[in-house]
């Protein structure tokens, strides 16, 4: 409902992207819906798992932020309501961040890695809490809307508004460190669950680096970079839902395998294509005295011819390093399942034997 309200406000205002605004009007709805959907599925199926409830907290916070953000940027409206919307929009991102951090710390079983990491979790929450306070009361333009904070405190005027979300960065790094520590200790099914989230986080980091590089090289692509990042972020709650609910867990092995093969293949072919065009254009320029389109055609044909054998070699190289680990994790999971079945059979046998003894004792009495 909050996501729908933010979209309705964005459409009704008929505004463009405000100066300094991130993304596009109504983008918070994308985050709120994906987080709410996955959080609901986990919370209803595993109510004792804190991950689902943490995602729901993040979803509600981001939904509220979306409504406040769109109301604050409306071309018209009462001053009091607009000021309140600007203020709510300035700090609700921190509440959503707390929900996501808890989901990371408690993924996948709802418990922290260990007692020490429970303390680290509270440190992260405290850091984000300080960022919430700064975002709510540091005067000057807010980072979310770019509008002046109507409730900024004069005593905090020495702090730059650009630093209000600075404590969130170390908090995020600590959560990622917790994920890495859990991954190193994991085995079997838990390792497969963690692969989903780790692979998604790594892919998202690569997308972020690529988009930021593209934005630096070509400043006009800033909006495209932000839109790409917005559409990629919902992959995190989706991967969490697949992992916690154990839906086709081992599909991640195939996805990682194909990503390694085709990612490396794309990079190599792009490098060959770029270098080949440069070489052949220079060669034709030396021989004919002018640039020729024949070089581009020739390089395209060579790259197309190299595609299949190069892909086959990369697939073999990835399989040699990747398949043993995959098969080992599957054998571990199967082994644990076999052990559980054996224990269940022993318990059933003991129960039947005990029932027989009781029946004989009753008959003799």
Shape: flat
User: What low-confidence regions span 5 or more consecutive residues with pLDDT below 50?
Assistant: none
Proportion of residues in helical segments: over 70%
Q: Strand portion, in percent?
A: under 5%
Spatial separation of the terminal alpha carbons: 68 Å
Number of domains: 2
Structural class: mainly alpha
Quote the average pLDDT.
Answer: 80
Main pleated sheet: none
User: Over all CA atoms, what is the radius of gyration?
Assistant: 27 Å
Give me the count of strands.
0
The CATH C-level name of the largest domain is: Mainly Alpha
Q: Please state the second-level CATH architecture of the largest domain.
A: Up-down Bundle
The sequence of SSEs as H and E is HHHHHHHHHHH
CATH fold call of the largest domain: Rhopdopsin 7-helix transmembrane proteins
Number of helices: 11
Secondary structure layout:
Elements: H1 2-13, H2 28-45, H3 50-72, H4 79-106, H5 115-137, H6 168-185, H7 188-217, H8 222-232, H9 235-244, H10 251-288, H11 294-364
Q: Mind explaining what this structure looks like?
A:
With 365 residues, the chain is an all-alpha fold. It has 2 domains: 248 residues, Rhopdopsin 7-helix transmembrane proteins; 105 residues. Helix 1 packs parallel to helix 3, helix 5 runs antiparallel to helix 6 and helix 6 runs antiparallel to helix 7. The radius of gyration is 27 Å and the shape is flat.
């Amino acid at each position: 409902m909050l996501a729908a309200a933010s979209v309705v406000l964005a459409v009704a205002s008929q505004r463009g992207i405000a100066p300094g605004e991130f993304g596009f009007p109504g983008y918070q709805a994308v985050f709120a819906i994906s987080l709410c959907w996955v959080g609901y599925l986990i919370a209803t199926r595993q109510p004792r798992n804190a991950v689902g409830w943490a995602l729901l907290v993040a979803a509600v916070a981001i939904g509220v932020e979306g409504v406040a953000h769109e109301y604050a940027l409306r071309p018209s409206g009462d001053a009091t309501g607009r000021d309140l919307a600007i203020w709510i929009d300035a700090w609700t991102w921190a509440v959503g961040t707390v929900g996501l951090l808890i989901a990371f710390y408690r993924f996948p079983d709802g418990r922290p890695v260990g007692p020490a990491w429970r303390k680290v979790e509270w440190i992260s929450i405290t850091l984000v809490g300080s960022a919430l306070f700064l975002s709510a009361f540091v005067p000057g333009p807010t980072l979310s809307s770019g509008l002046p904070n109507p409730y900024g405190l004069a005593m905090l005027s020495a702090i730059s508004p650009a630093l209000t979300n600075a404590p969130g960065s170390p908090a995020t790094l600590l959560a990622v460190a917790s994920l890495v520590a859990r991954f190193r200790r994991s085995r079997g099914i838990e390792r497969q669950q963690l692969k989903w989230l780790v692979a998604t986080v790594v892919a998202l980091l690569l997308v972020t680096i690529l988009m930021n590089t593209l934005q630096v090289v070509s400043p006009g692509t800033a909006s495209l970079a932000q839109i790409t990042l917005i559409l990629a972020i919902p992959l995190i709650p989706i991967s969490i839902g697949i992992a916690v609910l154990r839906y086709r867990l081992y599909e991640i092995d195939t996805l990682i395998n194909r990503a390694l093969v085709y990612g490396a293949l794309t990079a190599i072919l792009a490098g060959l294509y770029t270098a080949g065009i440069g070489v052949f254009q220079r060669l034709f320029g030396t021989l004919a005295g002018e640039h020729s389109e024949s070089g581009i055609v020739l390089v395209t044909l060579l790259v197309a011819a190299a595609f299949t054998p190069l892909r086959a070699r990369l697939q073999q190289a990835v399989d040699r390093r990747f398949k043993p680990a995959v098969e080992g994790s599957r054998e571990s999971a199967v082994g644990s399942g076999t052990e559980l079945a054996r224990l269940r059979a022993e318990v059933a046998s003991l129960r039947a034997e005990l029932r027989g003894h009781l029946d004989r004792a009753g008959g003799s009495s």
